[in-house]
Design brief:
The structure holds 2 protein chains of 2 kinds.
Chain A (H helix, E strand, L loop, with lengths): L2 H10 L13 H4 L4 H4 L3 E2 L3 H7 L5 E6 H7 L4 H5 L5 E5 L6 E5 L7 E5 L2 E2 L19 E8 L3 H4 L6 E7 L9 E7 L3 E12 L2 E12 L5 E2 L8 E2 L4 E12 L2 E13 L2 E2 L5 E2 L4 E18 L2 E15 L4 E2 L6 E19 L5 E20 L12 E16 L2 E12 L3 E13 L4 E12 L3 H5 L14 E15 L2 E13 L2 E2 L6 E2 L2 E16 L2 E12 L12 E12 L2 E10 L16 E11 L4 E8 L7 E2 L9 E2 L4 E9 L1
Parallel strand pairs in A: 5-8
Antiparallel strand pairs in A: 2-7, 3-4, 5-6, 7-8, 9-10, 9-39, 10-11, 11-14, 12-13, 14-15, 15-18, 16-17, 18-19, 19-21, 20-21, 21-22, 22-23, 23-24, 24-25, 25-26, 26-27, 27-28, 28-31, 29-30, 31-32, 32-33, 33-34, 34-35, 35-36, 36-39, 37-38
Chain B lengths: L4 H15 L8 E2 L1 H14 L1 E2 L10 E6 L3 H8 L5 E2 L2 E7 L8 E4 L2 H11 L5 E4 L11 E6 L2 E7 H6 L3 E2 L1 H4 L4 E3 L1
Parallel strand pairs in B: 3-5, 3-6, 6-7, 7-8, 9-11
Antiparallel strand pairs in B: 2-10, 4-5, 8-9
Helix pairs in contact in B: 2-3
Classes of the chains: A mainly beta, B alpha/beta.
């Protein structure tokens, strides 16, 4: 990164205004002619609004502009500030796991452009480390059950990441970022036309040594740094014409350092890799026939991962190897019927098929536990009606049924009553059921610790929620959600064999505020309070309270300053764990943006500014837990075209 | 394969060299603000029955529940159009409206079922609005605004449009 060049450019040029959000406002749009108005690009598309209206629960929308302003470089930097969400890290490869409302990551359905990011063996892929922020157009988050529309694993919520695709990539961008831990990234986004079709391309290449936390001691009593380096390549291509869109993506992670093996032994040598590619063909026609809209999608994905030069074993210290791959095929068709007065009826169905293949396992000390190659098929149907009961009342009722080839069926209903209570207040009463499919490991995979059980039932959940949106003024928006979330038939391997046992309840409150105090000054924040029952199913490393505050201030023309403060409350320990409980911690991040002209923008970002010694709980194998990154920084330059 | 640092930088330099020299940046606007300002412009280019004959506020009714859209529409309040201030309120059947913004089919059906097709400039935000008796259907394609106009419905409401508006319409129903 040419810091000197960037600084001299900063000093040289007296130029126009950079708004707090970078968007034109009504006052700026008013002087435009009609011809100019139809040339203005919207920063959030109608498409997103249509998708949001499907939400069976409380929805958060995060735009590319929010992501840029806050200096987020990865999807995980964004998600940690969402109400009810906590991103915790696994000691193995420092993998991020997104928890929501006190439920573990396997209860949160993560999708990219509507396609689930999960695999049979490792849930999100053994080396999955989020997504580069540069490829994200927006993130739609349903906080609450989503199985009635999206199927399995959506008990606590749904995260749908929408990437920049054709159309509407209307702005090209190229950027470079460099910073702590010898991290460097470069990205490109471009949209254009080809033979009457819209074409889109995004690419990001990055490399980092990772934060290399010192583990003292590891499982074997040794002290050393965990090697969390990784290189990432993310390439996405899209083609759009008429009602059709073709999306293709390729992701590869090289030299991923596991850091420690699963048992907590430092492994300075391991360098693993994974790659996945996908194809999706979408057809979306809101006027397919009289009173009918039609949506269809066909998807294919191939995921492959390798342990590279092998993982260190517990004892004796030798190396074991694991390579595996998976194919995923999905097909979905749905129609929206609006021929009935006061009703909008959506009916849909589809099939999803996953298959592991190419499993190669060399496990010298423990050859008795092979990983079997398996497949899973899911056939499903769903029906949803949005019924306009009266002028200000709307009732949404939905039901989905999934039939899985391995563990049977699951039906998930939902109801949502929305009342436009006043000009500024919307009230919602929501009820939803959801389920988590038993994992591959729980059903089939014998390990040293657990015996699988092919007779497992899915975990179930029920959520009641009361939500209020209040527009206190044109510039102040408030939200309050109160919920009770109960999971039953929980799958536990505590007794050796996986079984459906017990239940777990969470009551929670989420409070949000967003205040555009002035055109150039934004304050936003949210508070989460969780009350989990303290049974054996309580998820450790989930804070009982969290507070996020953000200020974004365009304090001078062309300059904008963003500050984010994150506070996470105490996290409880599992019953019988002798370690000292980890207390609350706070992180302070700040990003300064300078817009040089219409094309060039520069930023410097300081993360964990106060160098807080923050840690995530790990297993007892690491007595002092897993240190999170300390103070770090990056600088970046963007060229828009 | 590990990308060596020099190799990585060469790839970046190549990418930039190939893609950088392109057109100038364009402005972006939040969708609710753009909808509100387009709605204002539709009014500007419409000759409505009471135009020039009244000094009363122009009554703008919003049949929507999206708080951001309501806020954006609210910011049209007190602006003048041909000397008349705009009065913006949530739609109620009992209130006379000069123009109505309709968010969804459900809201439009409720309006029509309650008081019949209103004699007002109606702007709808869902696909099929102009086919169901609405006057202007506002949509977004490729991130930009598009609109269709039902001239038959406009005539029935006593509304005429200026050519500046008509020539930008994607589809005219006549």
């Amino acid at each position: 990164m040419h810091k000197k060049l960037a600084l001299s450019l900063l000093l040289l040029c007296p130029l126009p205004v950079l708004g707090a959000a970078g968007d034109a406002d009504i006052d700026q749009l008013m002087p435009l002619s009609l011809e100019e108005l139809v040339q203005v690009d919207v920063s959030i598309s109608t498409y997103s609004k249509q998708q949001m209206s499907k939400a069976p629960s409380v929805v958060s929308l995060i735009t590319a502009e929010d992501i840029r302003a806050t200096g987020a470089a990865n999807l995980m930097d964004v998600l940690r500030a969402v109400p009810g969400m906590y991103v915790k890290h696994n000691l193995f490869a420092f993998r991020p796991l997104v928890t929501l409302r006190g439920a573990p990551g396997n209860n949160v359905l993560l999708m990219v452009n509507g396609a689930p990011v999960r695999d049979l063996l490792w849930s999100n892929g053994i080396y999955w480390k989020g997504l580069p922020a540069s490829i994200i157009e927006r993130i739609e988050i349903i906080r609450g059950p989503g199985s009635a529309l999206f199927g399995a694993d959506a008990s606590a919520g749904v995260i749908n990441v929408i990437t920049h695709t054709a159309a509407p990539i209307t702005h090209g961008e190229a950027g470079l970022r460099a910073g702590s831990y010898d991290s460097q990234a470069g990205w490109l986004r471009h949209g254009g036309s080809w033979n009457g079709l819209d074409v889109g391309l995004t690419a990001e290449l990055s490399t980092t040594d990772g934060h290399r936390p010192t583990l003292s001691p590891d499982r074997n009593g040794n002290t050393g740094k965990a090697n969390y380096e990784w290189d990432n390549q993310d390439l996405r291509f899209s083609l759009a014409g008429g009602h059709w869109r073709l999306l293709a993506d390729y992701q590869r992670q090289d030299d991923v350092g596991a850091g420690l093996n699963g048992a907590g032994v430092l492994d300075p040598l391991n360098e693993s890799d994974s790659r996945q590619y996908g194809l999706a063909l979408h057809y979306d026609n809101p006027r397919f026939a009289a009173d009918w809209g039609l949506n269809a999608v066909a998807r294919y994905r191939d995921v492959k991962y390798s342990s590279g030069n092998g993982f260190i074993t517990l004892a004796p210290p030798t190396r074991e190897y694991l390579d595996a791959a998976e194919r995923q095929v999905g097909l979905e068709l749905s129609g929206l019927y609006t021929g009935l007065r006061r009703h909008a009826l959506r009916i849909g169905g589809g099939a999803a098929w996953n298959e592991t293949y190419g499993v190669r396992q060399v496990n010298p000390p423990n050859p008795a536990f092979p990983i079997p190659e398996q497949s899973r098929r899911d056939l499903y149907l769903y029906l949803q009606d949005v019924w306009s009961l009266a002028e200000n009342w709307e009732l949404t009722a939905g039901l989905r049924y999934d039939e899985f080839s391995d563990f049977g069926g699951a039906a998930t209903p939902r109801l949502a009553l929305v009342w436009q209570t006043g000009e500024r207040l919307t009230s919602k009463l929501l009820y939803g059921e959801a389920f988590r499919a038993p994992s591959y490991q729980e059903l089939y995979f014998q390990t040293a610790a657990n015996t699988p059980n092919p007779d497992l039932e899915p975990e179930r959940s029920r959520t009641w929620e009361l939500a209020f949106d209040y527009l206190a003024s044109d510039r102040l928006k408030l939200g309050l959600n109160l919920y009770r979330f109960k999971r039953t038939d929980l799958i536990s391997g505590a007794g050796g064999t996986f079984r459906n046992v017990g239940s777990h309840s969470v009551r929670g409150l989420e409070l949000e505020a967003r205040w555009q105090a002035a055109p150039s000054l934004l304050f936003a924040g949210n508070l989460t309070l969780l009350d989990q029952d303290d049974g054996p199913a309580e998820d450790v490393n989930v804070p009982d309270a969290a507070l996020h505050l953000r200020m974004d201030w365009a304090f001078r023309p062309r300059w904008a300053w963003d500050v984010q403060a994150h506070w996470f409350g105490r996290r409880s320990l599992p019953t019988g764990d002798p370690r000292e409980e980890l207390g609350a911690y706070s992180l302070l991040d700040t990003t300064l943006h300078y817009r040089h002209d219409r094309n060039w923008e520069f930023a410097v970002s300081l993360r964990n500014l106060l160098n807080e010694d923050a840690r995530d709980y790990s297993s007892r194998n690491l007595p002092n837990n897993l240190p999170l990154p300390g103070r770090n920084f990056f600088v970046e330059a963007r060229y828009g075209f | 394969m590990r990308l060596t640092r020099p190799c990585f930088r060469h790839i970046l330099a190549l990418l930039l060299a190939v893609w950088l020299p392109v057109a100038a940046a364009m402005e972006e606007a939040p969708e609710p603000a753009l909808r509100a300002v387009l709605f204002y412009n539709f009014l500007k280019f419409a000759e409505m029955p009471a135009n020039g004959a009244s000094e009363q506020p122009l009554s703008i009714c919003v049949a929507a529940r999206d708080p951001e859209l309501l806020a954006a529409m609210g910011r049209l309040r007190e602006r003048l159009l041909r000397g008349r201030p705009l009065a913006v309120r949530a739609y109620e059947a009992a209130v006379d409206c000069d123009a109505i913004y309709v968010e969804s089919r459900a809201r439009w059906q409720a309006i029509v079922n309650g008081a019949g097709t209103p004699r007002a400039l109606t702007v709808g935000a869902y696909a099929g609005f102009v086919d169901e008796g609405g006057i202007i259907e506002l949509s977004f394609e490729g991130g930009r605004a598009r609109f269709d106009i039902n001239l038959v419905a406009a005539r029935q409401a006593g509304i005429r449009f200026k050519p500046q508006l008509l020539r930008l319409a994607l589809r005219l129903i006549d």
